[in-house]
Each structure stands twice: as structure tokens, then as C-alpha cells.
Amino acid sequence: MEEERITGNTQWDGLGRPAIFYAMISIWCGIFLSVVDGNICNVALPVIARELGVSGA
Q1: Contact 15/23 with Cβ under 8 angstroms?
Q2: How many Å apart are CA 20 and CA 14, to the nearest integer?
Q3: What is the 3-state secondary structure (H, E, C) of the chain?
Q4: Which residue of 8, 16, 18, 29 sits 20 to 30 Å from the alpha carbon of 45, by its own alpha carbon?
Q5: In terms of Cα–Cα distance, which of 11, 15, 36, 13 is closest to 24?
Q6: With pLDDT > 70 as the criterion, what percentage of the chain qualifies?
Q7: How far apart are CA 25 and CA 14, in angstroms?
Q8: From residue 49, how far is each of 26, 35, 41 by CA, in Å?
Q9: How far apart are CA 26 and CA 36, in angstroms?
Q10: Tens digit of each residue's pLDDT (9 = 90 or more) over 2-26
Q11: pTM of whole model > 0.85?
């Protein structure tokens, strides 16, 4: 009796290989840019507050 080997769902109609990689790269770039943007804002806020004469409390 021969075992049936499952290699994947060939009827799946989702994204193909290249499109999946491009989607993953886009998501990772978005996450990276949001983290960098948050860090830039956190570094700049004390300088902006000092220039505007606003106290930290």
C-alpha cells in the first residue's frame, strides 16, 4: 500500500509566490517606517517644547 504524499493545495486561489514576498516586504517596510517615525518624534519633542517655552509637566 503506497502512502499518499500531500505537497500543498494546488487549487488555492490566493497570492502566488512573488506576490506573497512583495506583500511581506511592503508590510515589513511599513512597520519599520512607523517605528522610525515614532523614534524621530520622541527625539524631537523635547527640542520643540524648549523652543516653544512649554514645561514638561
Answers
A1: yes
A2: 9
A3: CCCCCCCCCCCCCCCCHHHHHHHHHHHHHHHHHHHHHHHHHHHHHHHHHHHHCCCCC
A4: 29
A5: 15
A6: 79
A7: 17
A8: 34, 22, 12
A9: 15
A10: 677 766 666 666 777 888 899 999 9
A11: no
Q: What grid cell was written down for 15?
A: 497570492
pLDDT for residue 4: 72
State which amino acid sits at residue 20: I
Residue type, 1: M
Residue type, 4: E
* The Cα angle at residue 34 between residues 52 and 31, in degrees rounded to 5: 170
